[in-house]
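How a chain folds remains the central question behind the approach discussed here. The record that follows shows the chain in one-letter code together with its fold in token form:
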Amino acid sequence: MKLKKQVTVCGAAIFCVAVFSLYLMLDRVQHDPTRHQSGGNFPRSQISVLQNRIEQLEQLLEENHEIISHIKDSVLELTAHAEGQPALPQHPLNGSWVLPAESRPSFLSVSPQDCQFALGGKGQSPDLQMLAVYSLLPFDNQDGGVWKQGFDITYEPNEWDTEPLQVFVVPHSHNDPGWIKTFDKYYYDQTQHILNSMLLKMQEDPRRRFIWSEISFFSKWWDNISAQKRAAVRRLVGNGQLEMVTGGWVMPDEANSHYFAMIDQLIEGHQWLEKNIGVTPRSGWAVDPFGYSSTMPYLLKRSNLTAMLIQRVHYTIKKHFAATQNLEFMWRQTWDPDSSTDILCHMMPFYSYDVPHTCGPDPKICCQFDFKRLPGGRINCPWKVPPRAITDANVAERAQLLLDQYRKKSKLYRSKVLLVPLGDDFRYDKPQEWDAQFLNYQRIFDFLNSRPDLHVQAQFGTLSDYFDALYKKVGIVPGMRPPGFPVLTGDFFSYADREDHYWTGYFTSRPFYKSLDRVLESHLRGAEILYSLALAHARRASADGRYPLSDYALLTNARRNLGLFQHHDAIAGTAKEAVAVDYGVRLLHSLTNLKRVIINAAHYLVLGDKDTYHHNPAAPFLGMDETRSTQDSLPERTVIKLDTSPRFLVVFNPLEQERLSVVPVLVDTPHVRVLSEEGQPLPSQLSAVWNSATDVVPDVYQVWGAPQPMCASLPSCTLPGHTGSPALPLPHNTRSHSCRTPRSPCMSLFSRGPTVPSRVFAPLTPSHSPGAGGWLRSPLCLQVSVLARLPALGLRVLQLHKFLDGHATPRASTRLYLHGRDVPVRKPEAVPLHIFPAAADDFCLENQHLQACFLGRTGLLQSLRQAGEQQVHRVSSEFLVYGTRTSKDKSGAYLFLPDGEAKVQGPPLEASLQLCCRTVLRQQPQHSYPSPQPYTPRDPPVVRVMEGPLFSEVSSYYQHVQTVVRIYNVPGVEGLSLDVSCLVDIRDHINKELALRFSTDIESDDTFFTDLNGFQIQARRYQRKLPLQANFYPMPAMAYIQDMQSRLTLLTAQALGVSSLHSGQLEVILDRRLMQDDNRGLGQGLKDNKRTCNRFRLLLERRSTANKVQDERPISFPSLLSHITSVHLNAEALVMPVALEKPALPALRSFVPLATTLPCDFHILNLRTLQAEVSYGPGAVGLWWGSFPCPQCCASHSSSLQDDSLPSAEAALILHRKGFDCSLEAKNLGFNCTTSQGKLSLGGLFQGLELGSLQPTSLTLMYPLGTASNSTNIHLDPMEIATFRIRLG
């Protein structure tokens, strides 16, 4: 009570200070003579005086905002250390569960200046805005002659008389790190031979050039060559013969990859290049991603690259840009108010990056200059005219023929410098090809260069050779805008390579692995941050000799496996089945290792006495609450066994903001109480764990003699790690079990256990006792969910106690609606269950923020209503199925080619279980497109409704999809949106794609918004002139629709394809099963589907200051709440039970790493420990770690340690300041949020650590930006990402 009075007094003080400050402000404006004098430069007119006073008022408002922010921080600090526990829930008679109001104050304080960025208005409009370009073009696909997708190109012979044509032929080999073959098989079969031949053949003639991009392959080759060959490579790079382009670990997919992973693989590649070769990439090369995001040019620009190249762009866009000589442009970010993000981009004009489509417009002629196709080889020219070896007799004729193509291609560009790539997939793998290409081309070059009358200079070159010559030709510094070159904003999705073949299927293909990718990404970020903090604290305590530095090698391996999966045939889901398995195994291996890194770091950080720390890899101090048995399985949760001694949990919050979250834990008893570290009870909820619609997880049994623990009913909980043997009971200290019930609602409902084909297990009877042989009973499997406040980037210690009397943990009640189906029901004993044979009436669930209503017969969402509003918003969901065409061209891993004509159809509701009505078409489209069929399940759904104090949920069980909609009854972020999960299993479908559609009364017309790589938002417009499949776009993180009153955002935890085909709709493709190849080289369909859990958040927001002019701009931003909800969805709290069972458990205390609260528009993208500079110490035999002898290395085994296995004392701190939209109302958010106009002090950010050095660098740490300063204050503009090299200790 005393603290509450203090909080009340402090709140009143804030109000008084605010009012008093405003009073002083007005008084000073009116009466302060010095302030009047400061405006002396203005004319003494009334308008000028008024303008001056407005500026003064704005300045004072800013000062007032800072004062209040400081007061708020003080109040938060006062209350954080006292009554910080959430209040316990109450359950009035005949009423809903009520969670008492928070005892701690919450703030939302956004500086007015921080809202200006989203309003825009600054800077000049670009010359090319891709949304406008799409609206302009007819997309009529007219035949262009020899250049089928273009036009006839003509020129005058004397056009180059005054300015000769300068041609750079760039030899390259595109090496996919996995596609038809696995990464390793590609390396051993082809890539190593390419690089070996390169090293040999490039040294034969200094005029030869070659470029390479995939550092994943190059590093593997580097590890297997001698020191002499490494030195030769460095010489080739040094003299400009060999160029590393882009320099990323892979050439990433730009549709599905998240910007964290895109940056991480870029850093990994650049750091490897700097350490091993001493080179910094200058130009970007991306010939094979299936469409291009505007995020990538921003990342390259901030990595200090000055130019880039792209290839796979819609053929109509290429034709239009070629006709207007806009194939080279300055690519600018849509949100950039000036030109700071500009990077020169070269777009290749023709169909492909292979030799027939790169020398000029006629592939029949260009193919004759691919000398790998000389007669007698393994490949030939499809146009039936083979190449001819160049001789003195034919060189004039052949050179003239090739020059004609060069001249025609150059007409598509603004300069007289021409780029001609020379390569294809896995080229130059044999010395014979090197000789054939280089010798024949050199003869042509020698001839052309010896004829001044031809006005051409041709040579081999690298990509940067070309860009350098271009910049030199126009007389400007590299990186600047060449005169006359257009500025472009936007992206290049969606891609079509011919006809109506849109590459929009891969936005969803293999969603299981897309989801696993994001899980690994979240774990990697968490492990990086926790490892860096633990290492810094260990060094400060001089305990680094006992800390497992070897964990750094696990981090490095995980970075590289995550980076490998960003390859454009990996996360895209477009590789062979065996290759997908190889990727999955790598991801799972790294996920397991990252859990180990997190456990080791958490162990050290929560110890009250660091001197008691002892690392024992055979018996970790902490365990994980979930594991995955195979690369294609859903996670299995651990059941914690309780007895008279308390069990301790350590919960890790990987977010840089404090969070109030519901943390789920599986236990073996209903008699459980959850306490804080100090012993205070925490709000909790007990609920059953369900295997299926009507079957709870039963008791767990160990079958004696079985190879592994079995279950009393399938599926169930199993004991991990115990093989079992005849006549041997389980060890008495066995304290945990695994349950195939993951954290996600949908997985906890539908995961299956092991299959036991020949035995049906019955409940235990006396004859099944261990003494009689055969059975051993283990505990129940229940879920206790606890509401806990978790420190930012910190670790919270919780206690689990078993009790037999006193206050019981509140239990969720469940209603089960069978809809007339005759199915057996297993009733849980510990929680109430009510069974209703018939269908339910429509019903609603609500919390203090919103009310969600559902259709009783389907259990699907029908409407939403926000607290304090009378208006009910229609937000209904339905499932639909797409088929594929019956013609020759069908959907496959890449392409989405749905069947049928445009129509509104579907049998009556009662017969088909069509789940909701369609909206009427806004207008009959110009293009006839297919319409998906309503999903028609075989049986009516079983609907289960669970209501509890912390959350309630509705589960609907259909034949191929089981969906859960959960509403959290808690303050803050968790309670402001709906948690939606869909477990999809379409393994019995043939050529079908399952979609989830939300239909609303939002009048969005033809506009919707999707994110690019989780980094920025791109406006989309439904194009009626294009087929349905052209209107789908990638959704790595979110999509939304809006009108003047409302915005509905669908946030996702995995990349999927999304569209808005009608006004007020959002539609997402959940999974695809396709039986055939789509003729893009894969040679397979998509038939290896997994049971996949897709997780979403659905957020409805009110728009308070919407502006139609603003809405028509091609730029948009999420709200702050949407940003925070997205990171909550993608970075779940990780639970680690203490595994030790010693009577004298070492004292544990929560770890709070941040001393101050970060502004809520700042995101710590990573805190990545950098690799040590490992060398042999002076006069010593052993390895040295930085400037000290490595504490874990000795001379006897130093030679076996890899250089990349040891950490340095430096780390890369990567910060992102997010742009956000202030027009969305943010009332009663229940969490603290303050912005600071981009200002942040890093000096005292990390509690208990000193910031030894702070050096701003380029994004990938290759270039220092300015000199290191003693100041630790930084500033970031909205949307910017900044990297700092720091030293903590």
Remarks:
- The chain has a mean pLDDT of 84.
- The longest strand covers residues 1092-1102.
- The first helix runs from residue 2 to 31.
